[in-house]
Amino acid sequence: MACTVGLVFAGCCKCTSPDAACLNNLRQIDGAKAVWAIEEHKETNDVPTWDDLRRLFYALPKCPSGGTYSIGRVCDVPMCSLPSHTVLWNDALKRAALRNYLGTRKLH
Fold first, then answer.
1. Is residue 94 part of a domain?
2. Which end of the chain is more exposed for a tag (fewer CB within 10 A), N or C?
């Protein structure tokens, strides 16, 4: 199963506290989807509902700026309806992918 698991938001972007909270929520939703998929033997195109993920949260995440979250398929990253949060989330994903790539390369 190919999916994004355990992304770490390093806080290296210029974002406000609500932006950072939203990015953290998206990271947690992404992790919850991965746990759900593994525990329930789901495939990459399966789509969990909030009811499926509810048990993995103390309280369901809410965007502090009023956006709404789209969970999406297991193989897709969750998204916030606020365009600025989507841009920050995509940037964080790219940085995480680059860190993972550079971490697997042997530097001579």
1. yes
2. C
